[in-house]
Amino acid sequence: MSFQIRLCRNDTTSYLRDTFKATPLLTPEARVKPLMVVARRNNDVQFRGELRFLLDDPTWSFDLRDEPVSSASLDKTRTLDAGLGLQILQGFLKGLNAGNAPIQASMNGIKSLSLSFQNVRRHFADLNELGLALASRRLNVSHPSLGVFLGEDPYQMLLVSDAIVSSEFSINNESAGEGSLEAGVPALHDYLAKAKTNLKRVVNTKSSITFEGNQLLTFAFSCVRLDVDPATGALQIMEAVTLRGDGTQESQPRIVLDNDLNEPGLLVFDDEPAIVEKN
């Protein structure tokens, strides 16, 4: 299963889904960026690498766009149980190569917390421009990595179109005066002074700890599905059709990887080892 943690319905994942059709990651990753190929079959979701290396011209390039993202839903998430929040935090720290940071000591006495994201940006492909660019390209149908997308019971070929990225996030104590995040900070700073991580700095107050990385990491992403002609390798972006509650249909190119609206999941690619048990 690719979704290893499930949350109650909340404003943050709803915003990402409704605005960008984006799927949140348990562990933020720099490699998840536009024009990366993802394979999906049922609940199996695998990261497959760059599209250009599957094309008839591996030197193909495409200009991406960039814009800031601002939302109160990202400024602070809904309150989480401290145990669940710790699992999510450990996933985020793993993305910063600090997965062994002794963060548990800072959580003593804390019953609930929230997360905040700063310096959030969207890296994305203009889909009209991308569709035009792909119209003149073909997949190299003899490429050995294309086997999973062809033949019987093939995987769907998805292409990352949008990456929601950030270099900075915080945990906030929401325990109504109980506990303090400061307790474990000395051990955390001692660890960071000795370990080789991708953290630039850690800033703390009594009620929050902010982690700033030295690069932007993707914590949510959107996909489009590519239709492939197995004979010629011709590509086109497919339209995803969803049925609204009132019986009408909505057609748009970005697809939703998780259909559970009430308990949205955090994705871990099936080509990586599990981090936590499904909760």
TrEMBL record:
Keywords, sorted A to Z: Antiviral defense, Cell membrane, Cytoplasm, Membrane, Transmembrane, Transmembrane beta strand
Matches recorded under InterPro entries: GSDM_bact-type (IPR058978)
Localization: Cell membrane; Cytoplasm
Keyword Transmembrane: yes
Membrane topology label: Multi-pass membrane protein
Membrane-traversing stretches: none
Main location: membrane
Family: Belongs to the bacterial gasdermin family.
Protein name: Gasdermin bGSDM
